[in-house]
Each structure stands twice: as structure tokens, then as C-alpha cells.
Specification:
186 residues; mainly alpha
């Protein structure tokens, strides 16, 4: 009965890293999706820049310099976001590997019957948890950059809308309504 109890204890201990392995997998999947969307956005902005440049040469474009500036600023933010997301992916993959090693170490320490090596799976588990924490901090930083980029783009769209909208449409807005200042107050 004692052997069965210790086998159950070992298997129970090995389940904890498995749950963290699952968490790593979910973070890897969502981060990979975010990275793909950022890359798609970069490609779209490059196409838009080429289109704006060609149109400027042919007939002139309203707010051309500002459009170009907005696109360059967006590309700068997207480059930073891409690098952060790539770092997140590396950290999450490393954490995943460490959690798998933790699970293996728990089994090996139990199979060897050497409780003096119990520090190894504990150390690996803590290292993996630190990796998850660091990756999460990077994702928080990246989400702030995403919000900053979105706000800058929306500010430009409102400015462009005010410049291009017909006068009767511009007057349909309340004189007190200013989305640029409203956003900052929230």
C-alpha cells in the first residue's frame, strides 16, 4: 500500500507542471496570433504607403506629410511590438521546456529514490514560473504599445475626417464633442 501511495504522490506532483505546460501552450498560441496580426498590419501599412506616394505624385493627397508621418510612426510602434512578441514567444517556449523538464525531474527523483535531489524539480518549476511571469510582463508592455498606436491612428483619422468631411456633416457634431480630448479624459 505504501508503494501505491508514493506512486500516486509522484503522479500528483507531476500534474502541476502539466497544468503549467497547458498555460504555456495557451500563451504561445495567443502570442503567435498577435504576432501574425502585427506582421499583417505592417504589410498593409507598406501597401498603403506605396499607394499614398503614387497618388501624391499623380494628383496630390490631402495631408500627405501627416499621412506619411502617421505611417512611419505606426511602423515604428509595430516594429517594437514585433520584437516584444518574438521575445515573449522565446520566453514562453523556454518556460514550456522547463516545465516538461520539471515533470521529468519529478519522476526521475522519485524513481531513483533520492529525496536529496528534490531541489532540482522545485528549482526547475520556479524557473518556469518566473519565465511565465516575465513573458506576461512583456505582453502587458506590448498591449500598452498597441493601445498607443491605436490612439495615434484614431487621432489622425479624426483630423483627416474633419479636413475632408463636407461642412454640413462637420456641423452635425456637437461643438463640445471632441474625440481627441474625450479619449484622454477617460
Amino acid at each position: 500500500m505504501e508503494a501505491f501511495s508514493s506512486a500516486v504522490a509522484v503522479l500528483t506532483a507531476m500534474i502541476t507542471p502539466a497544468v503549467l505546460i497547458s498555460a504555456c501552450g495557451a500563451l504561445i498560441l495567443s502570442t503567435s496570433t498577435r504576432l501574425g496580426r502585427v506582421v499583417d498590419r505592417v504589410r498593409m501599412l507598406i501597401d498603403r504607403f506605396e499607394e499614398v506616394t503614387k497618388t501624391q505624385e499623380e494628383e496630390g493627397v490631402e495631408l500627405f506629410e501627416e499621412r506619411r508621418s502617421v505611417i512611419f510612426n505606426q511602423l515604428d510602434k509595430l516594429t517594437t511590438r514585433t520584437r516584444l512578441l518574438q521575445r515573449c514567444m522565446r520566453v514562453f517556449y523556454l518556460s514550456l521546456g522547463v516545465f516538461v523538464a520539471t515533470s521529468v525531474a519529478i519522476g526521475l527523483v522519485a524513481a531513483a529514490g533520492r529525496p536529496s535531489y528534490a531541489w532540482l524539480p522545485v528549482t526547475l518549476g520556479l524557473a518556469g514560473a518566473c519565465g511565465l511571469f516575465y513573458g506576461s510582463v512583456l505582453l502587458i508592455r506590448e498591449s500598452f504599445l498597441a493601445q498607443e498606436a491605436l490612439n495615434a491612428e484614431m487621432d489622425f483619422i479624426w483630423k483627416l475626417g474633419r479636413a475632408l468631411a463636407p461642412p454640413d456633416l462637420r456641423q452635425t457634431r456637437s461643438p463640445h464633442f471632441n474625440p481627441l480630448t474625450l479619449r484622454r479624459k477617460l
